[in-house]
Amino acid sequence: MKRSSTGRLPPFAAWRFVDAVDGFEVVYLEPGRLRGHTSAIEDGRAYAVSYEITHDEGWVTREVRVTSDTVGGRRSIHLRSDGQGSWTLDGSAAPQLDGLVDVDLEASACTNTLPVHRLTMPVDEVVVASAAYVQALDLTVRRLDQTYRRLDDHRFAYTSEGGFEAELVYDDDLLVVEYPGIAVRFS
């Protein structure tokens, strides 16, 4: 699979959430870092999430800071990875995340960019890319088993536990353009 055709990412991207969640996400893209913000309402509950994800040159997640603001208050977490599959959560070992190299934030369409940049796959190859999944409202962190199957240069079939399936569409820079039922990129 080809990498970004431009060799560099745009300075920012933005998505509008659709269906179950009403809101938007803006992310600022820098070499080795994604810095984003999401504001949304889901099931009548409002939240604002800010995050910073640091990754190495191979797009392996190394550090994640997430803050969630809700009517119940503000919470923050700090995840660190050694890049080989060992994680800490707020400074303590997180063995439930052993073996994972990606993070997936419930409040972010952009985090589906990480494994696609990291993986090199021929068409029709299926790759397991399970991730440390961070929920938006309470910042609970758990393992999320998921797969990506490359359909062509811009489309991947995505599945996650519980039977969720979607065909994700990416641009030439391998940023999500369309995440059916979840988000659509508008900038």
Automatic annotation (TrEMBL):
Entry-linked InterPro entries: Glycolipid-bd_prot_put (IPR009467)
One Pfam family from the record: Glycolipid_bind
Record's protein name: Glycolipid-binding domain-containing protein
Taxonomic source organism: Cellulomonas terrae
